[in-house]
Design brief:
Elements: E1 5-6, E2 17-18, H1 23-26, E3 40-45, E4 50-52, E5 57-65, E6 73-76, E7 93-94, E8 97-98, E9 101-112, E10 129-133, E11 139-142, E12 147-157, E13 165-169, E14 172-181, E15 187-196, E16 204-209, H2 214-240
Parallel strand pairs: 4-16
Antiparallel strand pairs: 1-9, 2-9, 3-5, 5-12, 6-11, 7-8, 9-14, 10-12, 13-16, 14-15
């Protein structure tokens, strides 16, 4: 489990809405059952592969909703509280203080300092790679059994090229982040983790190879030229025969 987690500054829509506390009880109806977050899972998409030392390495994840889920997962940042979220997903407290109103909610990703893509200055200013966050969608709908794949960001070499080697990265999660006000108009913020890659034992890895020297490229191109010339010569001989 990573010791630190970091979250990007994704877009933050400014939508204000009041929280109607206890409305279901006042109406004489039973409160709705909370959404089962264990029905959501997150894995790295294309978890293994290779890259050149000068390449940006895009990290894609796939968020899935179990086919056995009793309801869909929905989110709409522009809809106002509860932002089309299923019951029990929107945070109701920030550091133990209840939300009285909400200003915004948005999807965001957490990055866990783990593996060899990062070092003690994770996730920025690393000796090998920096992590650049990707913006996330303002709306999402997953029916039971459906999945969606998207980018959470990319590792970019810190300098001209990263050292060749095998790199791994273990922890990422998708969360709903909310901001608003408390009973005394104090600003509040909180989040609800939807799913993370650790729970799925998913690992993102890349074998990074050095960029060939110019002389090596020249030899490769010369070799291709010789191979092509030989193939054309053989084709002409067959046609002449």
């Amino acid at each position: 489990m990573p010791k630190d987690r970091f979250m990007p500054h994704s877009f933050i829509p400014r939508v204000t809405a009041s929280l109607a506390l206890g409305a279901a009880l006042l109406a004489g109806t039973a409160p709705a059952q909370a959404f089962d977050l264990s029905d959501l899972s997150l894995v790295f998409s294309e978890p293994t592969g290779s890259a050149l030392a000068t390449d940006d390495i895009v990290v894609n994840v796939t968020l899935s909703l179990s086919a056995n889920a009793l309801e869909s997962f929905t989110f709409d940042a522009d809809a106002g509280a509860p932002y089309a979220l299923p019951d029990g997903v929107l945070p109701t407290e920030g550091d133990g203080v209840p939300f009285v109103s909400y200003d915004s909610a948005y999807l965001s990703t957490w990055f866990g300092c783990s593996g060899t893509f990062t070092d003690n200055d994770c996730p920025s200013g690393t000796t090998t790679y920096n992590f650049q966050w990707a913006p996330l969608a303002s709306q999402m709908t997953l029916a039971p059994g459906e999945s969606i794949t998207f980018s959470i960001g990319s590792f970019t070499p810190n300098g001209d090229a990263a050292p060749a080697g095998h790199y791994e990265f273990y922890y990422a999660s998708v969360a709903v982040f909310a901001t608003g006000l408390g009973p005394n108009d104090e600003p509040l913020w909180a989040w609800t983790d939807l799913a993370n890659t650790s729970a799925s034992n998913s690992v993102f890895a890349r074998d990074v190879t050095a960029v060939p020297e110019p002389g090596t490229w020249a030899l490769m191109l010369a070799g291709l030229g010789i191979t092509g010339a030989a193939a054309r010569s053989a084709r002409r001989r067959r046609q002449a025969a």
